[in-house]
Design a protein that fits this description.
By secondary structure, this protein is α+β, with helices and mostly antiparallel strands. Helices cover 22% and strands 31% of the residues. It is elongated and about 60 Å long. It comes from Apilactobacillus kunkeei.
């Protein structure tokens, strides 16, 4: 791609924060705007969450598009905090008869494909879902499957940074959660047991994850 080419795409929404570093941070209303059109962020903006709805590439750089009550624009990647990302994960339709695995898989897919009905594709399954079933559903719905079993937290965070939530098991008998964000202290996760979003420290998550042999998947 030429350095002056512009490319952007709509993405499932996620949240970012600005770096704390003492440096002038700015955004522009259009990626190709000149230096004189840059708009400076306020100091208070470092504490704010920015909801991102598009990512773009221009002059070999990555940009993030936000829109709030006061303005809309593009933030250069160099101003985005590396240790913070939260996906705007929405619960799929409720199914009280579904297992934790089925609920977690439905939420995992719903983030990227809200129009895909996981429960309908699964039908009535009485046993725990097989690895073949997980792979089949993910490939059909979002086009890919990634086994993150025994992978590092660095890989897990990388998946979330790529706008892909991670389904992680606590025990092999159906207990699982969906990770959808992190900061420098905790991970954010969806608990299919009660349908709530929660946080967990790395130490607590390691204890939980270890029980399943560190089983995890994504796409």
């Amino acid at each position: 791609m030429k350095s002056n080419s512009i490319a952007n795409e709509n993405v499932p929404h996620f949240y970012v924060r600005l770096k704390h570093r003492k440096m002038e941070k700015w955004y522009v209303n259009e990626m190709q705007a000149g230096k004189h059109q840059r708009k400076a962020f306020n100091h208070s903006d470092e504490k704010a969450k920015f909801e991102i709805d598009q990512i773009g590439f221009y002059q070999k750089h990555l940009w993030f598009h936000f829109e709030n009550e006061s303005d809309a624009g593009w933030i250069p990647n160099k101003f985005i905090r590396k240790n913070y990302r939260i996906l705007n994960l929405q619960a799929s339709k409720d199914n009280t008869e579904a297992s934790n695995e089925e609920k977690a898989l439905s939420v995992l897919v719903h983030f990227s494909r809200p129009d895909f009905d996981v429960y309908d594709k699964l039908g009535k399954i009485t046993d725990n879902l097989s690895d073949v079933t997980f792979k089949s559903i993910l490939v059909k719905s979002v086009g890919s499957y990634k086994d993150l079993t025994k992978k590092s937290y660095r890989r897990v965070r990388s998946q979330i940074n790529r706008n892909r939530p991670v389904m992680l098991w606590g025990r092999r008998d159906n207990q699982c959660i969906v990770l959808f964000g992190f900061n420098h202290r905790v991970f954010f996760y969806f608990d299919p047991e009660d349908g709530l979003n929660k946080t967990i420290t790395v130490k607590e998550l390691t204890k939980l994850w270890k029980r399943s042999g560190y089983k995890a998947i994504s796409y």
